[in-house]
Amino acid sequence: MSSNSEKVWTVLSMLEWATDYFEEKRVHNPRLSIEWLLSHVLDINRLDLYLKFDRPLSSSELDRLRPLVKRRGMHEPLQHLTGSTDFLDCTIHVSKDVLIPRPETEQLVELILNQHSDSESLNLLDIGSGSGCIPIAIKKSRPSWSCTGVDISPEALKISSKNAEFNDVNVNFLKADINDLNDPEGISTQNWDIIVSNPPYITHPEKSEMDPQVVNFEPELALFHNDPLTLYRKICEFAAHSDAKLFLECNDKFADEIKDLAGSFYHRSELLKDYDGNDRFVIAQNPHN
Ligand code: GLN
């Protein structure tokens, strides 16, 4: 993108130039990438760009766009460049300190919402809450519920609290380690009706097969664990002790083992697939749940 003052950039010429640039840099979704960035800088809907092909870009708009295009050229996720992403009907701010919410996790939330209505006034805990997307989206759809998220990362807790405020919902966020949930925050003494978790579930040997966009920009702490099954065991133990219904997101490579693990603590444990057809969720419950 030349800064030559003679050249007048328009929406269309920018879309075309940056698409080629991203293609050259082997960025995922080249056209969509520049559409996102341009609609972010111009503060218009992405599809409205198509009604404004001839609109010239001012020098201040170009100044804001240039560093974003450069960072995208280095494969930084679009959600980091625009600062947020949609998660169901919420806007969730993200940074390098939290996982970018995934469509699978929207599905995990939908499983809970489909099984329990607002009239139940439930007490829900999300273990490893990251950006806070799970309890925030649930609280937004189930205002009578009490929703809490715990995470080990102070940076993540700051972001999740900001996200709750931004989405205008009241969710408690507390610091806790999955390995030590019996801490002084009172988490272990509450009566939880539902416990949900999407813990770090990728093993280190899987790292080499992963997209560099994820590995280079998303937090190691939220993605990887040496032995994810030990974390799931801790979560199952805690949830079964609280007598809560349990909803887990899992690595499809060992989802079966997690189903069996949960089944050793609960009366019933079932495995469900995500929209891509991969084994992804385990729901465990006792007869009264
Ligand atoms: N689903 C995420 C991914 O594939 C991983 C989420 C997690 O580790 N909890 O990148």
Summarize, please.
This protein is of the alpha/beta class. It is elongated and about 70 Å long.
Can you tell me about this structure?
With 289 residues, the protein is of the alpha/beta class. It folds into 2 domains: 11-74, Orthogonal Bundle (Helicase, Ruva Protein, domain 3); 86-287, 3-Layer(aba) Sandwich (Rossmann fold), CATH 3.40.50. The protein is 40% helix and 16% strand. It has 11 helices and 9 strands. It has a 7-stranded mixed β-sheet, sandwiched between helices. Strands 1-2 form a two-stranded antiparallel ribbon. It starts with 10 loop residues before the first helix and ends with a strand. Bound molecules: glutamine.
For this entry, give a set of tags.
289 residues; alpha/beta; Helicase, Ruva Protein, domain 3; Rossmann fold; 7-stranded mixed β-sheet; two-stranded antiparallel sheet; 11 helices; elongated; binds glutamine
Topology:
Elements: H1 11-24, H2 30-42, H3 59-73, H4 78-82, E1 84-87, E2 90-93, H5 103-115, E3 123-127, H6 133-141, E4 146-151, H7 154-166, E5 172-175, E6 194-197, H8 212-217, H9 220-223, H10 228-242, E7 245-249, H11 255-263, E8 268-273, E9 279-285
Parallel strand pairs: 3-4, 3-6, 4-5, 6-7
Antiparallel strand pairs: 1-2, 7-9, 8-9
The structure holds glutamine (GLN).
Glutamine binds next to loops.
